[in-house]
Amino acid sequence: MTPTSPKLCFIHAIAIVLALASSSLHADEPLASWNDTATKQAIVEFVERVTNNDLPDYVAPEDRIATFDNDGTLWGEHPMYTQLAFAIDRVKALAPQHPEWKTKQPFKAVLENDLPALAASGEKGLLELVMVSHAGISTAEFEAIVKDWLETARHPRFKKRYTEMTFQPMLELLAYLRANDFKTFIVSGGGVEFMRPMTQAVYGIPPEQVVGSSIKTQYEVKDGKPMLMRLAEIDFIDDKTGKPVGINKFIGKRPIASFGNSAGDREMLQWTGAGDGARLMMLVFHDDAEREYAYGPADGLPDTKFGTFPQSLMDEANEKGWHVISMKNDWKSIHPADAE
Amino acid sequence: MTPTSPKLCFIHAIAIVLALASSSLHADEPLASWNDTATKQAIVEFVERVTNNDLPDYVAPEDRIATFDNDGTLWGEHPMYTQLAFAIDRVKALAPQHPEWKTKQPFKAVLENDLPALAASGEKGLLELVMVSHAGISTAEFEAIVKDWLETARHPRFKKRYTEMTFQPMLELLAYLRANDFKTFIVSGGGVEFMRPMTQAVYGIPPEQVVGSSIKTQYEVKDGKPMLMRLAEIDFIDDKTGKPVGINKFIGKRPIASFGNSAGDREMLQWTGAGDGARLMMLVFHDDAEREYAYGPADGLPDTKFGTFPQSLMDEANEKGWHVISMKNDWKSIHPADAE
Description:
Chain A has helices spanning about 5-30, 40-50, 80-95, 105-110, 115-120, 120-135, 140-150, 170-180, 190-205, 240-250, 265-275, 310-320, 325-330, 335-340, and strands at about 65-70, 185-190, 210-220, 225-235, 255-260, 280-285, 325. By secondary structure, the first copy, chain A, is of the alpha/beta class. The interface of A and B includes residues 65, 196, 249 and 274 of A. Chains A, B: This is Haloacid dehalogenase-like hydrolase.
């Protein structure tokens, strides 16, 4: 046969089509960074159940609401919450204007890099840090400061931007759910105005789908220019029992799927699971000290102060059929850079 | 020529295509219930400016945020706010369990249909009514009560459901903006959980795009069943300076277009107008006593207590280039039933 033979052309064409199909299948493969374990299977089966119009558990697209915790679920939270690292850097930057901080806790601990003393200042101390570092400026100024910090700060162990400390399998999960007409929300104990400057670029989640903790703001007109000033006063704590409250307040619908990693997510998963029909509840368990971190205290892992996963949560997960994602066994890669 | 002549067939086909195109043009005609005035022109010109990629005022789809007040802007608010009519009906329904209300204001006024006495109880009295009629039950129970009331209650003058008291031109405006990839939000002083049960069906706006006033809720587990209980405590008042605060809190982006009708919307329009680039701010002015209601006190219309439009707002609108929609002159029809 000559190269111009119609038959050869046809075979050639088929081969090209097959090659294209195979390469596109590979590119589109959902959840590529997940190992083929029961956990991945549970995700795929749930999505098939709620998206197949012929099945009794079918859910209309507008009701496919999925909520994700952020710290420890979508990005890392060790050696400390990213927002605390930001608050510490901010306190250091503001210190020259506050000579009294040299002798006053918790500021003294921050300026002397004394983490045990900082931890000893407790929740009250951390709240004081957040107020000082997050309030007293306009929302526009705060957004600019956060964006600048996210661009310049680096994670102490991995030496990368914090926005690169996201979990590749969870990014794929977000994309997979959205490809199946889910609307994905963040529901985090973190500050909503700390997260919003990066969620669209990093997670594909727009600001209006980010629920978080907040301080109060006040509308003011200065020199004819309207602005919102950030006040040193707590507005809402989106953690623990605050998560169902925040979901109801901001979303107004019960999620059919939710994803967390710590005791702060327990009530969100309870609330999600208490609805009718098919539900998917999952907890990321950080059991991979080599590639990321390992902490509990569930299953005898170290009890750290950030993202506590108590044994009682593990027991409730087992009892209620919540899936526990083992970072070590269920994930092929952890960070986006590893997957490339 | 015979009917089977190719040329005739072609002409036939063209005619059919033209007929279809024309009918579909008519069906798709945006803003059909708006008269061809400068107001309608301002809407169309704004949308063309921000959606044309070749123009300097182009806005990416994800930033096309439009916010709408509800009472008096999307649906009527006379002879009283719909939610107040609901609260009154609810107080009457609860009265048998509260014999003390017969002698206690503002309940006495409600039970005796004594509107002047009710008005005299002021904001404090109205708040007490709302608390009693909206709190002490779960969010699920409240939603069921609202849905039932919206189905059965009728407007005293028009004898229709309150959900039929929407403004047809504004429904078309919502649809027109969404067809141009705007994301439409309600930002109302009304209760968010009073609006959410109907916004999807009535306005095509899902619950998560409804911002409103709220009372606090609390997460409780009763007999193993998680629920959110509604507390008799104000959480957030989404009115006046509260509107930019609510927009920042719930949406996290500044709108490029906003629509209101009263002094409660002034700061929302200021906040919208203070952003860069093309902006559209509009106020519905109720100047049509015949087809709906006429109230101000701007332009010498009666000063009623619901949806006050003061002269100072009219002056600010004129000064800042906010468009005032004259219900009488700009709208061909008012309610959906009139347009059919």
